[in-house]
Design a protein that fits this description.
binds flavin mononucleotide
């Protein structure tokens, strides 16, 4: 079983990338093959129907879809922008959903979501919407367990783990739940 972790932020110092990388490390520490990918390496223009008609789907959308296809389970760790999902993440999902392929990468694997924010709600409102986009919009299976990490600026140790033991355990439980659900789904 292989798990993919990515964040809905391309920013160098992104708290959400830190959390996604922590998820990857937790999975690896538990003997699970896991990879972190950076959406900065898959930058795409904003979806535009005329652009799609003229030039087709961007190569990076095809590449990202092919990457998703290689993994059995996926964790998306997202920031919250104005109480919603960042355009970067929605745009990526929108373009990937336009790639015509026999395999529907959303319906054929398991997803988990989490988020981090400097604020008090830990990207919770973004998570509610991402859950709906994935499950209602894309037909994906999204596990119920999730982590909303508040006060993200103060939350991490230098080594990328979470300072608060309860938060570290809570996030490790989400990663484990993704692994368990992915194993069941693939069986
Ligand atoms: C346009 C914009 C809107 C934002 N809106 C929210 C918000 O609604 N709720 C929130 O908790 N943080 C909000 N923030 C702050 C982000 O949570 C913060 O910039 C966070 O660090 C972004 O995630 P990252 O560290 O992974 O890049 C907003 C930031 C931007 C740039």
């Amino acid at each position: 079983m292989r798990l993919l972790f990515f964040a809905g932020s391309a920013r160098k110092g992104s708290h959400n990338k830190k959390l996604a990388r922590l998820g990857q490390h937790i999975a690896e520490a538990n003997g699970i093959e896991a990879v972190f990918v950076d959406l900065a390496d898959f930058y795409m223009p904003i979806y535009h129907g005329d652009l799609e008609e003229a030039e087709g789907v961007p190569e990076r959308a095809r590449a990202f879809k092919a990457l998703l296809d290689e993994y059995d389970g996926v964790m998306i760790v997202t920031p919250e922008y104005n109480a919603s999902v960042p355009a970067l993440l929605k745009n990526t999902l929108d373009w990937v959903s336009r790639v015509k392929a026999e395999e529907d990468v959303f319906k054929t694997r398991v997803f988990a979501i989490s988020g981090a924010s400097p604020g008090y709600y830990g990207a919770m409102r973004s998570l509610l919407q991402l859950r709906e986009i994935l499950s209602v919009g894309l037909g994906a299976t999204v596990i119920p367990q999730q982590m909303a990490l508040p006060r993200a600026m103060q939350a991490f140790e230098e080594d990328g783990s979470l300072k608060d033991d309860n938060q570290q355990k809570m996030f490790a439980d989400v990663v484990e739940a993704l692994a368990v659900a992915t194993r069941k789904f693939a069986a």
